[in-house]
Amino acid sequence: MAIWALVTGASEGLGREFATLAAKDGFDVILTARSVDKLQTHAASLRRAYNVAVEVIPADLTDPVAVERVWDQASAGRQIGVLVNNAGLGRNGDLTDAEGWAREADSIAVNVIAATILLKRAAAHMKAQGAGRILNVASVAGFLPGPHMAVYHATKAYLLSLSEAVAEELRGSGVTVTAVCPGPTATQFFASDQAEKATLATRLPLPSAQSVAQAGWQAAAQGRRVKVVGGLNKLLAFLPRLAPRRLMAFFSGIALKRRW
Length: 260
Known about the structure:
Order of helices and strands: EHEHEHEHEHEHHEHH
Low-confidence stretches: none
CATH topology: Rossmann fold
CATH class: Alpha Beta
CATH superfamily: NAD(P)-binding Rossmann-like Domain
Strand order of the largest sheet: 3-2-1-4-5-6-7
CATH architecture: 3-Layer(aba) Sandwich
Distance between the termini: 53 Å
């Protein structure tokens, strides 16, 4: 029986790279995101390059009903061996801003609710099969508070904690859960929020989506529970163990405040 990889947010950036890595490793692939045209284009390229089956399920993951539909369609008659919970949203701006709630609500819906639904469904499905791996794209943001991106940081802290807890629940089952934690990456994430290169955090040279995806994919294949990508990010993930959290929040706020 063919083994499939389900990748969310697969139309661009990290999701596109994860889908490519899955196909390269011989998995048949299911792509989901909102952009139908981009999904279809990438699906065609994967079929040509790797001779694998590729299915496209367009969906808006801010809607929990649509998330359930994605899982039901993806798993119908298929063995899902890999889930990549990559879709994510964020907003740069203060929580007290008059505008912004719609984006923040969508961030919670995608980063928390959709990711949890798919994790829960996939974990049960894979446990019954006795094998599988789940890769959750968290962030170094999950290790520290993030003034001016408060909701985003909080959602990634949730996903990081959830990943580690479920990994322990599944210990010995043949199913692994990995949280990959990159920092800012050269994708359209910040551009979609009109914050690209507008903060100190994004003025630094950014790693490519390809390199970050490769690090996360390899960590999941090895069954690692947490993979922080990049030397500076490893330092940032470790510092909250030593420095007062109030101090970490202060410096995070400096890095994340829009300045240009």
